[in-house]
Design goal:
- This protein folds into three domains: about 10-50, no CATH class; about 70-95; about 100-325, Alpha/Beta hydrolase fold, catalytic domain (Rossmann fold, 3-Layer(aba) Sandwich).
- By secondary structure, the protein is α/β, with parallel strands linked by helices.
- The strands form two sheets. Strands 5-4-6-7-8-9 form a six-stranded parallel sheet, sandwiched between helices. A three-stranded antiparallel sheet has the order 1-2-3, with no helix packed on it.
- Helix 3 packs antiparallel against helix 10.
- The chain has twelve helices and nine strands.
Length: about 325
């Protein structure tokens, strides 16, 4: 059996006056010593101090140690606050806390509409029971699907399967989760569109949900030769970019303002191809007017009755898209 670990000896220190320090040991040993020099310590004290005590006895013990500790802590706190103010986190939080004009704030979907987006939680229960009779298309199209902000292509998979059941060819955008625009990502999108156009030998329909619809519009402006039609679903291309319930989260995550995206764009300008906007008065994320647009900003606006999340699975969206693809020109 191992022997029990020896208990540390206890030494107590107290000031006698301004010039001397009283040292008291648990055994009863007591001695006074000058404050500025520990030379009058008992013979065994220095060794015991180095072995048992977590700190060393300084040559001179300050009388007002608590005040100095508080001052040092305050200085350290000030340095930490200054470092935080220069940090990337502080910059992004400031973006998320930007003021929003009251007229824009009042144009956002109401809280009740936003809460209604929770309906998506029931979709896994409803979907197995849903039976859609998908008609075969007489005008099959190649469709590149662009997901919304912070979502991945898998979110659009159910919708893609319904289009494929009609005979259309659906393609992912090839970018994984959509964390917002940047020059490199947009360049890859341009290359993706050009590759699909070359591979299939025909123009591609761009189908974009929410932020993905803004990508689709800008791609069509730059590469109209490769685009047959643009269809947006709940995409805020018109009005204020703050007339929605996610712009603060968007600015925090992307690190840039909705007013100054890293890719210069006139969102409201209509692409030089047929452009259709699907929008819903039940949208709890994007203001309906921003998704519907004004005349001249799109060719047609089609109103549906679904939530913002519902654009990816609602049957009326499926059939509206099938009809739009059917009437697409070559």
């Amino acid at each position: 059996m191992s022997s029990a670990e020896p208990q540390p000896e206890l030494w107590h220190f107290s000031y006698v006056d301004d010039n001397s320090l009283n040292i008291h040991h648990e055994s009863g040993l007591e001695r006074a010593m000058p404050r500025n020099r520990p030379s009058a310590l008992p013979e065994r004290l220095p060794e015991r101090l180095s072995q048992r005590l977590p700190v060393r006895l300084p040559a001179s013990l300050p009388r007002h140690l608590p005040g100095q500790v508080i001052a040092a802590a305050a200085a350290a706190g000030a340095r930490a606050q200054e470092a935080y103010a220069r940090s990337e986190l502080a910059r992004r939080l400031a973006l998320a806390r930007e003021a929003c004009p009251q007229e824009v704030e009042s144009g956002k979907p109401r809280l009740l509409r936003l809460v209604g987006e929770a309906e998506v939680l029931l979709e896994p229960i409803r979907r197995p029971r849903r039976q859609l009779e998908i008609p075969k298309s007489s005008n099959p199209q190649v469709v590149m699907i662009l997901p919304g902000f912070a979502t991945r292509p898998g979110r659009m998979r159910y919708l893609a399967r319904q289009l494929e059941a009609a005979g259309h060819i659906t393609k992912r955008w090839g970018q994984g989760r959509n964390w917002g625009p940047d020059p490199d990502r947009f360049a890859q999108l341009e290359a993706r569109l050009a590759a699909l156009h070359a591979r299939h030998g025909r123009k591609v329909v761009l189908l974009g949900w929410s932020l993905g619809g803004l990508y689709a519009r800008e791609l069509a402006k730059r590469h109209s030769y490769a685009v047959a039609k643009v269809i947006t679903m709940g995409s805020p291309f018109s009005g204020s970019p703050r007339a929605n319930n996610v712009w603060r989260a968007y600015q925090f995550i992307t690190g840039h303002s909705v007013d100054a995206p890293p890719i210069p764009a006139d969102l409201a300008q209509k692409p030089p191809v047929e452009t259709v906007a699907l929008w819903s008065p039940n949208d709890g994320v994007i203001a309906p007017r921003c998704a519907a647009g004004r005349p001249g900003e799109r060719d047609r606006a089609l109103a549906l009755r679904c939530t913002h999340m519902g654009f990816t699975y609602d049957p009326q969206v499926v059939f509206a898209l099938l009809e739009e693809l059917e009437r697409t020109g070559s």
